Amino acid sequence: MTTLTPTDQELIQAASDLLLRTHDAALHRVAAAARGVSGAVYLGLSLATPRVSVCAESSAIANAKMAGEEAITTIVSVGLDPADCPVVINPCGVCREVVPSFGRDLHVLVSVNDDVTAVTSDALLPMPWVRARPYS
């Protein structure tokens, strides 16, 4: 397991604080924090309606891009455990495909056997989907 850095812990805390402040089981169940190459931290919140959901990781990345951030270096998402304490959760399948597009050597903080560690985005999706070329 990779030892978390103080900046990793800061990201987890930022996402946790956001989730505790905004949690609504019907609308906002996950929060994310992403660190840009500039060092700035960008937050994201899941958005849910009966018909569509937007992941917290996507909104954190969108906030970074809107701020002019060149790329993301690290990202984490948190949800609440049964005791309503924030815990690191692993990205969904869509986020495993989206996140790697926004930074080379990007690290994702994940939960493995109840330990939090950093993995590369390649470890999340070892065989990424690629669009077939159109017929010529």
TrEMBL record:
Keywords: Hydrolase, Metal-binding, Zinc
Superkingdom assignment: Bacteria
Residues annotated as domain CMP/dCMP-type deaminase: 6-132
The keyword Zinc is assigned to this record: yes
CDD domains linked: cytidine_deaminase
InterPro entries, per the entry: APOBEC/CMP_deaminase_Zn-bd (IPR016192), CMP_dCMP_dom (IPR002125), Cyt/Deoxycyt_deaminase (IPR050202), Cytidine_deaminase-like (IPR016193)
Similarity remark: Belongs to the cytidine and deoxycytidylate deaminase family.
Name assigned to this protein: CMP/dCMP-type deaminase domain-containing protein
